Amino acid sequence: MTLAELDRRISECRACPRLVAWRESVAATRRAAFRDQEYWGRPVPGFGPGDARLAILGLAPAAHGGNRTGRIFTGDRSGDVLFAALHRAGLANQPTSVSRDDGLALRDTRIFAAVRCAPPDNKPTPEERDTCAPWLHREVELIRPTLRVVVALGAFAWAAWWPAFSRVYGHRPPSPRPPFGHGALARVSDDTPALLGCYHVSQQNTFTGRLTPTMLDAVFARAKELAGLA
Ligand code: SF4
Q1: Distance between CA atoms of 94 and 71, rounded to whole angstroms?
Q2: Which of 78, 160, 161, 227 could form a disulfide with 149 if both were Cys (CB 3.0 to 4.6 A apart)?
Q3: Average model confidence (pLDDT) for the chain?
Q4: Which residues pair with 186 in a beta bridge?
């Protein structure tokens, strides 16, 4: 299966009844500011080239961000912070991400989420997380030849990496699992991707100063080093 085929199949998935109902009801109701826009209202596939050396793993699309625009981290404040940082790091051709046709292109970087549909309160259930996991595993399998480092945005993504790691690379995850932290680094072996922790780019973290642009710059500088891009 090609990455394009995988993206198409993901965007047609209806495996989680609660999330299908939620994403579609948000798309039908809309936020007042976006009343005139047609919401995507479907699962949001990954974004970025198939020969990425660096991957960014998030939690799930935002109800009025990715679920509206159809592109991950696109059209909300989290994305504003993330893509500005990727642009400063030389991994994105522009600092903004507003719609699927805005001309944004990533270099050496693929972004995806552990759960592909927007969940109520940004909280997927464990069952939804596990139902969606095979999409992530297939995507990692496809970019495996070049993938060198995964930046996990938050503890949920950090935890979601290990089943993918074990499934795709056939290695047992470390036990006990390395704890998530901002700047935490987990390396199992030289022939598997390093996992680098970063606080999530949520407004809760960026508005309060828990995650600053300088901290993000440091994470992406480290990620580029680990990916052999520095
Ligand atoms: S969360 Fe994942 S598995 Fe569930 S419906 Fe969406 S794409 Fe399918």
Answers
A1: 15
A2: 227
A3: 97
A4: 195
* Dihedral (Cα; 154, 45, 127, 196), 10-degree rounding: -20
Structure tokens at 124: 């997927």
Residue 34 has pLDDT above 90, yes or no: no
Choice from 122, 128, 137 to test ligand 1 binding pocket (greatest atom count within 8 A of CB): 128
224-227 long-range contacts (CB < 8 A, ≥24 apart) are 224/54, 224/89, 224/91, 226/148, 226/149, 226/185, 226/194, 226/196, 227/53, 227/54, 227/108, 227/148, 227/149
Query: What are the two backbone dihedrals, phi and then psi, of residue 89, each rounded to the nearest 5 degrees?
Result: -80, -5
Phi, psi of 43 (to 5 degrees): -60, 150
pTM of structure: 0.97
Q: Whose CA is nearest to atom 4 of ligand 1?
A: 16
User: Is the Cβ atom of 43 under 6 angstroms away from ligand 1?
Assistant: yes
Amino acid identity, residue 174? P
Burial class (CB in 10 A: 0-12, 13-18, 19+), 30: middle
The residue type found at 94 is Q
User: Which atom from ligand 1 is nearest to the alpha carbon of 131?
Assistant: 3
The pLDDT, as a whole number, for residue 32 is: 85
Q: How many of the other CB atoms lie within 10 Å of CB of 165?
A: 22
State if residue 128 touches ligand 1 by the CB under 6 angstroms criterion. yes
